[in-house]
Amino acid sequence: MSVTLDLTRLFFIISGSVCLSSIAVFLAKGKAQRFLLLAFLAGLAWYSGIGAADPAVSLEYVLFYFIFFLASCLGFHFSKIVFYPMSSQIGRKVPDFLGDMSKGNGSLTLIFVYILLTFFPLVWPEMRILKLIYPGVPNLNIAFGDYLNPQIDVTSKLLGYIKILLTPFFYLSLYRLRKNLLLISTVVFLLLYLVYIDHDYIGRGTVLSEVGGLIIAIWFLKPNYRRFIFLFVASLFPIIVYLSYWYGNFRIGGNIEGINFWDAVSSLLAQELSFPKRVSMRLLELGTRTNLAKYFTWIVTLPLPKFLTGGFDIPQFGFNISEIVLGLPTGSVGWYVVLPGLVGESFYLYGPHFFWLHGFFCGFLACFFVRLVERVPQFLFLYAHLLILFFYYLNRGGIFSLLPRVINYFLLFYVFIFFIIFPLRFKPAPTILSDEAQNSLSQTPT
To answer: Could you state, in order of their start, the residue ranges of all structural domains in the chain?
Structure first.
């Protein structure tokens, strides 16, 4: 796979993206809004913009990219106005409710429970605890087969769902450990190792997103460390890229011998920049669209248990996009999951005339989550997690990758916030007294 970039077109795309994002970020209020908007737009430019400098990508797509980019900015700033009252209410009540979080064992208990829930699949329904010492070899084919044909008992499903609901509270609880960065790092890497042991596989995106979120949180927590963090990440970046390419080949049983460093870097960058050429142009040329009614039904039914949604005809949208792009049925030889990128996904959802609606919605959604956390210092690690979601997951995997994470995972968290803002107040029931008792109470004592 290769990407050839026209330098003139590349300069135009980068200049236009920087200009639009600079204006949008300048108009945002506060660091939280600016950083998340910048992360969202940077991901959009990286995955859907730069690759459009390939001469094989039409100029029409470049125009669509900039329209989508502008619509995303407008959606963000419209959402900023709509959710200002919510942000104000949260800022007045939630920080005081949470307190300093430096004392008490509630947060520590929740972190411990979250680790136990991640560890549980190693002891139920099959005892696999020895894999902690003798881990398996990563195999994407087996992991994907388990995903297509899950064999999960009721107990595992229930505990897995509890873990999903506790995820935002886990990130919130990490704030309790903010003065012990070594302990926080240990918790994060332990969880990643347990996930790998459970599946004999862990996605590169999962590792980079969790470690990236940790680095972002430390960046905000320790201003004096920022120069060191920058130099550390910059020096390791080429190695990370190389290891990412090496792991990508190793997990599918590919040849890993004699991989040249620069060939690995260029191949991985070509893969990450190929969304416009490989996916978006294909979807635009074919003009195949999904059924919007089914798309909105999917959104509405996301929070519901699967046994309640079995009667709805809801397709696997990500698999459908893969079938369109590859021209192969799901599960056949040569078929794999194609990540769409945001602009390409917008063609699939709304077509070439209303694709910009998807950009407006994504920008609107991004600012909603900023408004949810921006005024609460204790939400720092949750905010760092959201930065990764909107930079990486949304721009690479599309809305079908993001929404399950911000709807299903945050359900209990939304209830938590709601009852802090609107606490239940129970009025005592009126007491009916006899006339004699009322006269007695009304007498003034001497």
So the answer is: 7-421
